[in-house]
Description:
By secondary structure, the chain is mainly α. It has 16 helices and 4 strands. The strands form 2 sheets. It has a two-stranded antiparallel sheet with strand order 1-2. Strands 3-4 form a two-stranded antiparallel sheet.
Amino acid sequence: MKYTIKDIKRAIENILDELYPHPENLIAEFSTIEDIANQIVFELIKEDYKKNADRNTIQFYMDKYDVDATNRKYTRAIQYAQHYRNIDFDLIQADFGIELEDLKPQDVSGEKVFKGHRYTEQDFLGFKMQAECRLLNKLHQRQIEFSKSISESKFKELFIEYRNLLYDLEPLVNNPEDVICKTLLFYGLESYFLIDFLYALCVAAEANGYPKIIPLERIQAVCSTIPVILEKHWCPEVFFADYCMLLKWDSMAKHIYEDDEEHWLRNECIIYDCKQLKNIVLQRGLDNWVDLVKECSVNDKANFIIENYWIWDKIIDYEWTSERIQYYRKLHSELMRIFPKPQIK
């Protein structure tokens, strides 16, 4: 029997309903059972894409997108991307003894940069964004945090450029392959760089007089991955538990700054329950779920994204003030990981 995405979502909702003993605790501003099911389905589509999408050489995509292969910034972008993948691969292997195939170190030197490996279209568009979007490089290098490196006028210019690149990237709804590929790219950019989430935090902080102490633990409860959430009476322990409910993060920003300690602790429990629910479903029988999604049509998967996960509605027209810029720099400095600098010329 062939299942549709709606069938898969309904089955996941049934599992969540049976598993979770406190559905009355969930609030629409953060997550409902349907929200969690939508996130799981979206991530299954992501895993299906990573596992089964067509792969081609970089040269193939450079020809398709009419990119100048002699331009050094593209080879640098590919080498930078592999540098950060190598770091993540080493950390996960050291901490948990797991080798993640999609992070495995690759030789991307010489001709192998363009011809030695095969990538999905999402991979290539990620390299292209890294090459063309100056903001991503300034974020990686943490230059965004210093006014001596990035003036306020330059800061605004970088964010406008990023926003316009996203507008250019937005897929047509009648092109299902692009809907999947480009939405996954935007999702990856935001969940990794937290660009728009940090802006939402700036707006929430402004509304509350820019508290001197950044509520770092509250912010990390929303956007950080937790190595382990221990077993509860209703759920086994899970590893690498994340939330990534990007469509909900704006409303969470307000609670991060406005909730008193009692209310926040209650909301934090909800967030942790949602992380555990989402990740236990994904970590138990992931391959079987992905096989079911693989059998669904491209149109079916794209229509699900359009109806339930249209992250493109979250593209922000940034309104920067000196105070917001200063606070964004502080947030980025406090929240983002420090990476060893790549030795790339």
